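Known limitations

Structure tokens in this collection are predictions and should be treated as such. Users comparing against experimental data should check residue numbering before alignment. To illustrate the layout, the record for Head-tail adaptor protein is reproduced below. The input appears on top and the generated tokens appear beneath it.
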Amino acid sequence: MISSLRDRLTLLSPVRTADAGGGYEVSYTPKATVAARGTSLSGARRPLADRDIPVRRRRFVLRYRDDLIFEMRLTHQDTTYQITDIQEDEQRRFHTVTAEELRP
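Generated tokens:
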């Protein structure tokens, strides 16, 4: 299993900064670069304005991390993904992360 982790993922951690309106703005900073195995999943369609746009979905397997949270983003081959699901195996050796491509 470990030898099949040949892709590189950059984990992006959320940083909240206060804005003038009493809320906050979220930006993302690189937290770590990890080895992973990525596979493509069937695509999805998401509403945007008055139409549906196609969205790529991918599944990544990476070593277990106790700091992995849903608010994080992933970057793989210059594409940024939003985490939609995090699963761990019974021995807490690996995470399986499902993510959707973020479109500007």
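For this record: Residues 64 and 75 are 18 Å apart (CA to CA). The first strand starts at residue 7 and ends at 18. Please report discrepancies through the issue tracker.
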